[in-house]
Design a protein that fits this description.
Blueprint lengths: L15 H23 L21 H20 L5 H20 L8 H6 L3 H15 L7 H14 L2
Amino acid sequence: MPITVELQDMFRYSFIPVAIAVVLAVAIGVAGLIYFVKHKKEKPVKQVVKPQPVPKPVNEVQIRDKYCSLIDELEITYKNGQMSNRKAYQKLSELLRQFVFELTGVKVHNFTLEEIKRVNMPNLTRIIDECYAPEFSVDKKGNIDDTIKKTRMVIKEWR
């Protein structure tokens, strides 16, 4: 009994079912991608909570005296011509910021003017605002003697 097998030609089957299967697979893939993009849960933004400064026991009189003497040194250095107007404003701003930090624990030496305005320290804001233009601009001179006097008063009257 002879058994014969006839092989069919490879392209004898219809290409349409294969094409439909490929199109359906691509459509399902695109639909799934669109679904995941639209329904992707955004990670909640973590709110940065700035720690409140811990009040530390300080001797206010010693701190005031220290910064008043540092301002006196700055004034003498400036009047002797050993420091430019701009550098004097920068140093004055730095001293006032360090004074506030030492007294209150608030790190205002890292703050911009806008951030300083938000911490509700009007005397600090006023002096730093006065220092800003001469401190960061080459052509602004300002009145350093007047600003030094105001800074001394802020330090002496700080509450």
